[in-house]
Amino acid sequence: MTAVVVYGFLAVCLVRLAGLVRATAVNVPFQDQWDLLRPMFAGDGWWAAFRWQHGPHRQGLGGVINGLLYQATNWDVRAESWAAVAVLGCAALAAIVLARRLRGRPHWGDAAFPLIFMSPVHWETMILTPNLAHGILPVLLVLLLALAWTARTLPGRLVGAGVVGSLCLFTGFAFCAAFLSAGLAMLLILRPSGSETERRAALALLVIFALALVAFGWGYRWDPAVPGWRFPVEAWWDYPRFVALMFSSLLGWRAMGAGPVVLGGLFLGPVLLAFAWSGRELWARRDGPAVRAVWLLTGTSLAFASFTAIGRLPVNIEAAFMWRYLPLLTPAVAGLLIWAGVVVRPSWRRGGALLGLAVGAVVWGNFTPERHAAVIAEAKHRWIDAYLATRNLGAANQAADFYVYRGDPESPAIAERLRWLEQNRLSFFR
What we know:
With 430 residues, the protein is an all-alpha fold. The chain contains 20 helices and two strands. A two-stranded antiparallel ribbon has the order 1-2. The chain starts with a helix and ends in a 7-residue tail after the last helix.
């Protein structure tokens, strides 16, 4: 019966996401995609797509998957949206498997995982500007990394954490998880009374991470993607406010004021507590698989939120409400659910499961993304019709009152790529 409940929730969530993609995904590159797909426009190979840098991160596995998807579908942009649905479904499954492994049995509270990981709040990197590498694929990689670190055998942990951690480093903002994984290995080396075998395995992981970091740094350039970026800002107290507003945004309250900050702080507090607790347990050598999972999941979201606040606060504090930042906050929720369901006192676990379902229902019950996606889809279709009628980028922008590249609406480079797509009968020219 438990499996019926959990996988029933997953099926319902899958149907909703599939309906969103079918109704609102449009076959035209948009905004950052014109840069994200540049290695493909240039005809470069998979290694160039893997190493392609956009802002502070590289595309990694997302770039390789896109190369395969676009080649197989004649550059159908909607294929990336469908891939995002599949990835989020796999992330929910990975979370269910992780919780079951740590608990030793299934639990009805695991139904919260599909609600959290398969919610339309991910719409910006699914529908608006599809980008698997930014946050959606990293969510799956973070959960796979947690599975690797909780493997029953030491060789399994070594190989799994080494391979997945390296992919995390190269794939979007999953690099936060890669550094958390390296930090976990360092803790195992430095803590008192660690076993020799354990320390050698942790040292091997650090060597793998160092080699991956050298490869990552080869040709890397610092690009905060914010003109005039600076650190710190004068109102330094806005950094924690920014992070709190990110967490309140995940719960659907996207407004300035004391209320959203308090709500976000109430959410952020347990995440910080779970991360600090797991760090203490690791240092005291009272750790187990659940402790390592809580450390990685909560720490990744905290690192990402901090990095985002540092990078985006110079724009304005309202940047905390960007939808594309929400996917990588979800690992923190998974970490809290595991903490509540596996680690805390048995008498508290039922309440933790109910609270997790309530949080999942709040996240999943946000219908604002679907309204936004419908409006954007209509505008994209309007632009396609205008371009097919005029074959002129500027005229199409004016006729549709919409831009597929707002940074430079009449960019000669974008116009040239559109001509290339038409010559090769790709994307909406098929």
